[in-house]
Amino acid sequence: MTLPLIAILRGVTPEDALPIANAVLDAGITQIEIPLNSPSPLVSIERLADALRSRALIGAGTVLTPAQVRDVHAAGGRLIVSPNCRPAVIEESRRLEMASWPGIVTPSEAFDALDAGATGLKLFPAVQVGIEGMKAVRAVLPAKTLLYAVGGIGEDNFQAWRAGGVDGAGLGSALYKPGQSAEQVGQQAQTLVRAWQAAGGEHGG
């Protein structure tokens, strides 16, 4: 079963995207997002989708408009991650049969996202909400709702977040920073995966 982790490759270039993504995949992370504020993100997404479609769910982060959803879909991406909750973005993602992970902080945003058809919810920034704040939101969500924490979550606090009730995590700078080699990213990915599994995070949901 796929690990409930999303690799966030913010700032990756089209030239580095495939070797970095392969290193992440080798560690067991099969959901990969290229944020749209990266260099030539649609080129990277197209290259990854062409090469890895059968092995990974590839898509975009920092998706803010329905037009961007369509652009990602045209490039072969099937995963849409946003920092905010825009029902129109969620609805367009679902219309195109793409996975949709909008960013939420409040219960109002969470229920707006679920009403629009979100695949799961991205608690962002998790470090701002904190574990106790997350528990309060989690308590009112439908039981089957998938909740991933993004922003300030990593190997040092996986255990606490998992115990608090998150199903998965998005991994950004702890996994990848621009300029890092595929080998370095692979080592970081393996460390993060081992830490997640040690925290009882083998599977999500």
TrEMBL record:
Keywords: Carbohydrate metabolism, Lyase. InterPro entries: Aldlse_KDPG_KHG (IPR000887), Aldolase_TIM (IPR013785), KDPG/KHG_AS_2 (IPR031338). It holds the Pfam family Aldolase. PROSITE patterns: ALDOLASE_KDPG_KHG_2. Pathway: Carbohydrate acid metabolism. Homotrimer. PANTHER family: 2-DEHYDRO-3-DEOXY-6-PHOSPHOGALACTONATE ALDOLASE-RELATED, 2-KETO-3-DEOXY-6-PHOSPHOGLUCONATE ALDOLASE. Belongs to the KHG/KDPG aldolase family. NCBIfam families: PRK09140.1 (NF006600). This is 2-dehydro-3-deoxy-6-phosphogalactonate aldolase. It comes from Halomonas dongshanensis. The lineage of its organism: Bacteria, Pseudomonadati, Pseudomonadota, Gammaproteobacteria, Oceanospirillales.
